[in-house]
Every structure is written in structure tokens, then in C-alpha cells.
Amino acid sequence: MKSKIFFSIGLTMLILGIIFSAKSDIMLIGGILGGGIIGYSYKLIVHNKNT
Question: Highest taxon of the source (predicted)?
Fold first, then answer.
């Protein structure tokens, strides 16, 4: 359940980062971090389904 929450937070950060990256480099970094959170939470979801 927690991994789905992380996934939605990461997705939101990624979308906001893409939208605001033209205005600010900090938001681009936030978007990259969001993408990392998505990747990590996706790995957790897949791992939990396998076990």
C-alpha cells in the first residue's frame, strides 16, 4: 500500500517538474527526483507481486 502512495507522489513530482522546468532549474531537479521515486516504487511493487 505504501509503495502506491510513493508512486503517486513520484508521478506528481515528475509532471510538475516537466511543467515548471522551463521556469526553474530547481523544478527540473525535483522532476528527476520524482522519476527516481517512480522507478524505486515500481521496483518495490514488482518485487512484492513476485514474493
Answer: Bacteria
